[in-house]
Amino acid sequence: MTELTEIVRGLQFPEGPIAMPDGSILLVEIERQTLSRVTADGRIDVVAETGGGPNGAAIGPDGKCYICNNGGFEWGTFDGIRRPTRQADDYSGGRIERVDLDSGKVEMLYDACDGHRLRGPNDIVFDNHGGFWFTDLGKGRDRDLDRGGIYYAKADGSLIREVIYPLMTPNGVGLSPDGRRLYAAETETGRVLAWDIIGDGEVDLKPWPAPGFGHLMASPAGYQRYDSLAVDSTGNVCVATLINGGITVVEPETLAVTHLPMPDPMTTNICFGGSDLTTAYITLSGTGRLVSMPWPRPGLKLNYLNT
């Protein structure tokens, strides 16, 4: 087991960590329905109350925090592990929100695309053109499950485009260091997929039967479900892994896969921070913890985040 430093516990299903320049970690608490800040000394401060189910988060070109809100879950505890179960009885609809970090004001930016309502936006990454890619995982109910997709949108509210549809529960999303490749992880299939980017909000869709109309990067054997992801400076795709709790690292050229175990089957997110980006921050959501560990390579510097 990797030696971890526990920063804080008692979080209510944390996800979407962002290592901020001041040393704090901005993250969402999905069950608490907040955007929260964890200070270096482990204090938890609520930045904004979003309602619904705040999920992925990223800093945009205006310095505000953009949140994928999945609309809300019902919750259960199984063998001491907290986890979401199905669409909330008071489901409030999927949307992309923008939060002013100084005032805590929450604005709704997008809740539909081409007349179709967003169902369960999940993860988000900004490119260097003022736009962002995000996944819509969909929502699950007792007897049925939405099909999901990947979207591209502008931070100024002027454009939203459905780019890849349908996918089976797309979750984590990221970009290669040169910005020319899009990565996504599917939860239920346990697959990591990739697409070549050919323009702003455009990818090279491969003909059927290419999986997800892209490139299959990884589909390891055994029962595991993929959550959010981050990319390191050498281009490795680091995927938070559920059930087989840990971080799965996929090397993009050789497609070699390694797994770093974590002490929580609901390991949901990873981000990189510190002065040289060699500290990994990981959300152990089933037990409500944020932990850190040294990472053998620097993480990829994110657009619009001056770490």
What is the β-strand count? 29
Count of separate DSSP helical elements: 0
Shape annotation: globular
Give the name of the CATH superfamily of the domain at 16-225: TolB, C-terminal domain
The string of secondary-structure elements, in order, is EEEEEEEEEEEEEEEEEEEEEEEEEEEEE
- Which whole number gives the mean pLDDT? 97
Q: Point out poorly predicted stretches.
A: none
Strand content: over 45%
The CATH topology of the domain at 16-225: Neuraminidase
Kindly name the structural category.
mainly beta
Gyration radius over CA: 17 Å
Distance between the termini: 28 Å
Helix and strand layout, with pairings?
Layout: E1 5-9, E2 14-19, E3 25-29, E4 34-38, E5 44-49, E6 54-59, E7 65-69, E8 73-78, E9 81-87, E10 95-99, E11 106-110, E12 112-113, E13 116-117, E14 121-126, E15 131-136, E16 148-154, E17 160-167, E18 170-175, E19 181-186, E20 191-199, E21 202-203, E22 215-218, E23 225-231, E24 237-242, E25 246-250, E26 257-261, E27 267-273, E28 279-284, E29 289-294
Antiparallel strand pairs: 1-29, 2-3, 3-4, 4-5, 6-7, 7-10, 8-9, 10-11, 12-13, 14-15, 15-16, 16-17, 18-19, 19-20, 20-21, 20-22, 23-24, 24-25, 25-26, 27-28, 28-29
List keywords for this structure.
307 residues; mainly beta; Neuraminidase; five-stranded antiparallel β-sheet; four-stranded antiparallel β-sheet; globular
Question: How does this model look, in words?
Answer:
The chain is mainly beta. It has a domain at 16-225: Neuraminidase, CATH 2.120.10.30. The protein contains no helices and 29 strands. The strands form eight sheets. Strands 18, 19, 20, 21 and 22 form a five-stranded antiparallel beta sheet that branches. The protein has a four-stranded antiparallel beta sheet with strand order 1-29-28-27, with no helix packed on it. The two termini are 28 Å apart. The model has no long low-confidence stretch (mean pLDDT 97).
